């Protein structure tokens, strides 16, 4: 069976098993996916790692276009995601609906888990600096190099976890409190493209077309993403 290799940001991992299964059922083409933060994927691609399709932040894909690693004609925006906050299932949800309420929730948390790299980690670091609470939050924060921050809720290492909502939803045993107030953030846009070096152009283009289908959009919504 022919298969394509996809290097993808973690944000769409929650939808990917079903996306790949549906695509294979429809086309007979398999999908082998590997997931990591965009910055890590950019480094791997620049070191020569092979892939047929990449799904990155819009900014990351633009860099690959500029370096002529991704075919410009294949570019497609797949989905967008908001940064949100989660806590362990069954616990009382704090109010995060305004900047003042969010500030209080973050200061009162025993520990907040967030990622050092990736769009959500960068946004959160800037946010707590703007709120004037970076020194308070970071004194007890659980800052992970990469991966799913909500896993630190299950192990009781943190009271709150911050990440893209689609990534928070990938961890069992947690609940989404909600997005950080939307006026305080810009959604991350995830985009896809076909690698210039692939010898599976036809198969890759079929997969990119599938990502724009109503079936795929429904799966992405279920995973916490917006088309």
Task: Write a structural description.
- The protein contains 10 helices and 10 strands.
- The chain is an alpha/beta fold and 227 residues long.
- It folds into 2 domains: 114 residues, Periplasmic binding protein-like II (D-Maltodextrin-Binding Protein, domain 2), CATH 3.40.190.10; 102 residues, D-Maltodextrin-Binding Protein, domain 2 (3-Layer(aba) Sandwich), CATH 3.40.190.10.
- The strands form 2 sheets. It has a 5-stranded mixed beta sheet. Strands 7-6-8-5-9 form a 5-stranded mixed beta sheet.
- α1 packs antiparallel against α10.
- It is elongated and about 55 Å long.
- It starts with a strand and ends in a 5-residue tail after the last helix.
- The mean pLDDT is 95.
Summarize the structure.
By secondary structure, the chain is of the alpha/beta class. The protein has 10 helices and 10 strands. It has helices at 13-27, 38-46, 58-66, 99-108, 119-130, 134-140, 151-154, 165-168, 201-211, 214-222, and strands at 3-8, 30-35, 53-57, 76-81, 83-88, 112-115, 142-144, 160-164, 174-179, 188-194.
